[in-house]
Amino acid sequence: MPASLPEQAVATVRRWLTEAEQFPKDASGEQLAGVLKDPSGLDFTVGFVDGVIRPEDIRVAARNLARLAPRVPAFLPWYLRTAVRTGGVLAPVAPQVVIPAARKALREMVGHLIVDASEAKLGRSIAKIRTDDVRLNVNLLGEAVLGEREADRRLQGTHELLARPDVDYVSIKVSSTVAPHSAWAFDEAVAEVVEKLTPLYARAASFSTPKFINLDMEEYKDLDMTLAVFTRILDQPQFRDLEAGIVLQTYLPDALEAMIRLQEWATARRAAGGARVKVRVVKGANLPMEQVEASLHDWPLATWGTKQDSDTHYKRVLNYALQPAHADAVRIGVAGHNLFDIAFAWLLATERGVVEAIDFEMLLGMATGQAQAVKRDVGSLLLYTPVVHPAEFDVAIAYLIRRLEEGASQENFMSAVFELSANEELFEREKNRFLASLAALDDTVPLPHRVQDRRLPELPAPTDGFANTPDTDPAVAANRDWGRAILDRVPGSTAGTETVAAAALQTEEQLDRVIDAALEAGRGWAALTGAQRAEVLHRAGEALAARRAELLEVAAAEAGKTLDQSDPEISEAVDFAHYYAERARELDEVDGASFVPSRLTVVTPPWNFPVAIPAGSALAALAAGSPVVFKPAGPTKRCGAVVAEAIWEALDASGVPRDVLALVDLEERALGRQLVSHPSVDRLILTGAYETAELFRSFRSDLPLLAETSGKNALIVTPSADFDLAAKDVAYSAFGHAGQKCSAASLVILVGSVAKSKRFRNQLVDAVSSLTVDYPTNPAAQMGPLTEPAEGKLLQALTSLEEGQSWLIEPQQLDGTGKLWS
Question: Which of 204, 237, 707, 727 has the fewest C-beta atoms lying within 10 Å of its C-beta?
Fold first, then answer.
């Protein structure tokens, strides 16, 4: 790279800014600039979009407008401020008049950013924007894809766009092509997406001048899939001569390695006589989503940690791609509004003689004067053009808010875009950021941040504090292979079988001996300090982590749990060990008191969480210095046995007798009564039915019982809710592990107008009816079987209705076992 290039880039940006002033000011752009400059502009605008535009119920929108109106910011002209304040007063009285008018006004204000997709207006809008040197990359926005109905509708909408004579370039995301899939079923999902998208690519190829499809992506978890879908489609012989594109997000360290893979594949494609491809290079705009995903699962953040690192990597990818040796196979699309980056790419391409292999893409309606100035130099522009049908305008909210938040973030170039020419301080800020990102540029190929490999031992947890253990990351190919190997072992699984057999007790004398041995071992255990017990529990956490694959296997084989349901449960069990270890230390630090452990604790866990709840209950008691008699639930004895084996492993390594944790399998009801009512039992921990708690108390009226019983989780949906998210939450909560958990949403309370919302109803039906129901040996399964065949009240609920009820979706028995129901 020429040493003079940074200086040339800065000079080019200054010239573009000067030239941009020659073009007429865009009124809508000026209003957007006002939003970003006003201290309360962003909060007001986001509140207006989210509270007044999005709700279906105009009465809710009216109340929100009334609350917002007194805070109308100064950036609006006086007549609009007056209209907002007047609307706020009138809205509660005449919502049917005020709210439609307010929504129409906003649609007109953002019409330069989002195009009306209705047949009557789309053609006129395209004709107005498109010229010989301006092409459009059209992206159809729509409702959240929760199921097959919306996925098919979105795909059909893109087909219709591509069929138009005035549309020759479209973008579509893998995630909007098919219903949500299991993250563990990578191969199956790729095959389904390829099948769904192949006709769209065939349509693009069918025109005398083939049209262009850009495969877009949003989340890190879609990266591998998008790459696989893109290459597999274009590897089909019928698409050998079709040029198509894919996006790479450079705020991911993985982007350069992906670029290299694409370059090598495209070079081979060209050598075989195929068309070249295009890679659209963007920085990425879903950082909050990635941050939430990482925090929920305790994974490393997939993106770069700083804006400068992301900016440098953007240039690193361009520096690799814009080479004469690469230009024949891959065309580069430089997407963004950062004038310094655009100048860098243009000057670099010019210096290396690859200007015919580069496109520049900007957002429709953003900084139009600057776009015109850039176009004078580079020759043409591609405008990213979101289109939406008027009846679904609320789905454009996420896009609008993303654009606004980008503009408001002081780390983002867009926060300065409207003032660069007049504000030298802002210009210097952006220039220095550009130069700093260039100074860090090198030829290294960064490693991904998400590199977890479950085939290797898990990293040890801290022993001087508590930190959650990460869930397994299915975005990593090695982990997906590991998961498939587990599922392959499920049909022949025997994990825990021998331990269960050894724990079977037939007589009262046998049970008495077990209790006596636990009491004897418990005296030595209780005599240890909390810190000493903490060391043992930390070892138990490591042992449980080491048995993650075995626990997943037995949970699938015995309880029918899918990997997405059981893996977080294993993490929870590991967390219990380390968390209670640290709580045990605190027992040594109680000033002026001595802790006296319970003589014996009985743990009777449920079958629906056969790993985490028994582990947590037993480990809590052990942390508190009490020996434990552990009786797993009948349907999931083997799960309990493997948990016990892991804890015994820690006891053995610490020189503590195994009798501190006694595993028992009691087939006879009389033995269960003997255990519960035994006078040496100081505490019993039960998770199960309320009737079971009553039964235990009837065995012994003074029983110290800690019981969690008969939970029923209700989900309340109000008219202010995001109905797409609400429908998604209901479906995932209600049918995870076939609804066999107290935390599953078994009751949904629809407030007011939600009960009549077609949007909510349709999205819920789409999400639920699209779930893949199967045994966990199928990695695509999203809802597994019942742990035991349906009978009694459950069977009645699945097959009959009470007075006044009707089916929204009627359950169907899918096989003869009585376990698998849709």
Answer: 237
